[in-house]
Design a protein that fits this description.
six-stranded antiparallel beta sheet, single chain, 38% strand, 2 domains, mainly beta, four-stranded antiparallel beta sheet, globular
Length: 190
């Protein structure tokens, strides 16, 4: 059996595919992680941080059975003490249960800070997002752990009364909402 290592996107640099004409068992001793063979290389130009570290952030998709409307540019935020409420239109095309629901609210409890960045879908696909190439998909809601490199985006944080530290990231049509909070809850509002 032959192995093929393929398809790693290199943001702004195209992609790389490596065909290896050796049996998998012969290649495993050469890999740092024998369960997933991989190739390392040093480019001429420096790559973004996420290609140079072993401390990559980890993404958990949180919106498995709901999402914001793909064409809704109307993110509405409300602060209530240490709670941040983000209101958006739901996506009734992908999630029929939201056909008659005009708005959903994502409540972030014990929120310590948040920011709305200008990274949209075009910025994501052109490599302007620090998580481009790492986050599984654009337009989703994630909890991110590990090295999130907050300093790579210059948008200032808006401080709140809470002390929550989990990192939540919601990619919306025209912007990205980043939140540090203890937890979140989805509410349908009819």
């Amino acid at each position: 059996m032959r192995s093929c290592l393929t398809g790693w996107p290199l943001i702004g640099l195209g992609s790389i595919a490596v065909l290896v004409n050796e049996p998998t068992e012969e290649l495993k001793p050469l890999a740092r992680h024998p369960d997933r063979l991989w190739v390392t290389w040093k480019p001429k130009a420096d790559l973004p941080w996420h290609f140079e570290t072993d401390d990559l952030p980890k993404f958990i998709r949180l919106n498995e059975d709901w999402n914001a409307h793909p064409n809704d540019a109307g993110l509405r935020l409300e602060e209530r003490g240490d709670e941040l409420i983000a209101r958006v239109k739901p996506n009734p095309y992908a999630y029929r249960q939201y056909e008659n629901i005009p708005e959903i609210a994502v409540s972030f409890v014990n929120c310590s800070k948040y920011r709305v960045t200008s990274v949209n879908d075009e910025g994501w696909y052109s490599g302007q997002c620090r998580f481009g190439g790492l986050a599984p998909e654009w337009g989703e809601f994630y909890e991110i752990s590990g090295n999130v490199q907050d300093n790579m985006n210059s948008t200032p944080w808006i401080k709140m009364e809470g002390v929550g530290a989990k990192h939540f990231h919601f990619y919306l049509k025209d912007e990205t909402l980043e939140i540090k909070a203890q937890d979140w809850v989805l509410k349908s509002e009819s």
